[in-house]
Amino acid sequence: MTARAFLMLIAIAVSIIGIGGSAMAQRDITDNCKGNPGVDWDIQIGACTAAIQSGRWRGKNLDWAFINRGMVYSAKGEYDRAITDYNQAIKLNPSSSKAYNNRANAYYRKGEYARAIPDYDRALKIDPNFTTARNNRAEAVKMLNQ
Length: 146
Description:
Layout: H1 3-32, H2 41-54, H3 63-75, H4 79-92, H5 97-109, H6 113-126, H7 131-143
Helix pairs in contact: 1-2, 2-3, 3-4, 3-5, 4-5, 5-6, 6-7
């Protein structure tokens, strides 16, 4: 084998490893950005942030990363940061009943029941069968003593 052929094989191997490493990194991002209580919150925030900044997803295809990062912020009690992420998810995908429901949940947890109800209403308008949003809305109304 000539030196040139050997160097070509090395270059191909490095290229394949790089592609595989990139695919693995992308999989780690999506695996670790799921709002999963079994994964450290800060790892999830980092993975979601990496997904957002990666440029791999755009528009409606990126709302999941903001929703999932918002879920982690909410779980950590950082409701304002969660609301900011849900706002961004709604901006990217105004038909996401999950984003409206989750933003309403963050308002609810902050004790802002009157702000939560319109988001639950919007989630239900988008998906009338979203029973979780219906139940959450009922709890918010109950908290307002209505």
